[in-house]
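Weekly structure sync - notes
Attendees: PM, LS, DV (DV joined late)
Agenda: review two folding runs queued last week.

Item 1: First target. Sequence and structure tokens pasted below for the record.
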Amino acid sequence: MTTRIGVLGADGRMGRAIMRAIASRDNKSARLGAAVERPGSPALGQDAGVVAGTGAAGVIIGQGLPEKAAADVWIDFTVPAATLAAAQAAAARGVAMVVGTTGLSAPQKAELAAAAKQIPIVFAANTSVGVTVLLKLISDAARALGPGFDLEIVETHHRAKRDAPSGTALRLAEALAEATGRDLGATARYERHGDIGARSDAEIGIQSLRGGDVVGEHTIYFLGQGERVEITHRATSRDTFAHGAVRAALWVSGQPPGLYDMRDVLGFATS
């Protein structure tokens, strides 16, 4: 069975990467069903495959959200306001979604969860398979190493990234907090400057670096007495996220309504 995928934000860097990922699948399990861009985009009216660099696909980039007859799943890596509008429309039309948009506030995440009561949605700050495995690794490490190790995260992204910390860094911090029984809202430390006193045992530090064309790098530090453990994930191409998003789209199609993440896609336990 072929899953028809609608790509929202088709002319963005991630949109083009996702369309390339769809076109690259040899088993024909997925095909591009629709491609959408914002009003005024120069890509409107163009063939989506030509825009993505894969050759004519026979799908014209349009302005309105796809109908269910055109796409079984929508993949959205746009901006929070557009994502929420799309989620409401998808819920009304009975279309599944994969959401990789970052920078959603707590109320916006609640809105997305409300839409997921009607349709299946995979919501992941990072759709990389490697990062999904990383979440499990750091959770296991935090539990095994115990309270004698301080937890710090450093993330680096390209100079044009607008949100900080990255959605991935926040998800990593959440995983550490869950594994160690901490309240991230009370223990996260996003900045250090001046005479701030000694570090508390409960802190989870999250620091952001911005510059150049870095696709994404995250290092988690477990800092103990006389030793430390560092676990790093480096993304060198957006295609990594695109292939993960397509994998998620194939998985979520046909799932019951609910809010899922990439751990569900890979079959990991959520604990």
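Item 2: Second target, run right after the first with the same settings.
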Amino acid sequence: MTNSTTQPVLELRDLFVSVMQPPQTDIVKGVSLVIRPGEIHALMGPNGSGKSTLASAIAGSPMYRVDSGQVLFKGEDVTKLPADERARRGMFLSFQYPTPIPGVTMVNMLRMALKARRGEEVPAREFLAELRTTLKTLKMDEEFARRYVNDGFSGGEKKRAEILQLGMLRPDLAILDETDSGLDVDALRTVAEGVNALRTSELGVLIITHYQRILNYITPDFVHILVNGRIVRSGDAQLARTIENEGYDPILRELGVLEGATA
């Protein structure tokens, strides 16, 4: 789908990550990964394999420490950059459990986020035009954007709110951390349709998921299996279907690893 000579939007080089709070447990143990513009990668693995930790470390969460290795974003080493600087450069992370912000409307939050992303105030007329276009693309009602951020939202609405943010901010890399968590079939389909509607040849996507079901609606170019902080298998969409049919046990038995790795 992409040219192998294209500069990666994300490159992880032998990344080792530990949690900052004592005990400083090693969680990610030598992950290397390349995502090019236009590619969708799915990262799967048993509970506690380190998937969400890896996502947070890529985005610059202060809860984790990169002990060695590099995070390169569009060719720039951002390993030591804080999360806000990575976001300004075009990284986007959707959270597994989005936080409610009572009193702050989606419209106001989006306008402030867009200002931070572009480094300048977006004129009101231009912002509203972009918002309406994005809402239309995502088949969302304008009333949705007037609500307080995640306040009283259902699980599906919280995830739709994050997809709206993705559409407005237009990042170069979108990390979707268990976007399918807690969603019923209809909500899952709605969110997946939103991701597909926003897909471009410039956007790289990393989908973190435990189950294959979201991949029924978003077809990945590459699938990686993370076990005990290491990528132990990589393949195409068929690998996800194999996991759906057989589970992780065959891989764990082959590796001699028990399910229930550290965090």
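Discussion on item 2: The first helix runs from residue 51 to 59.
Action: LS to circulate a short write-up before next sync.
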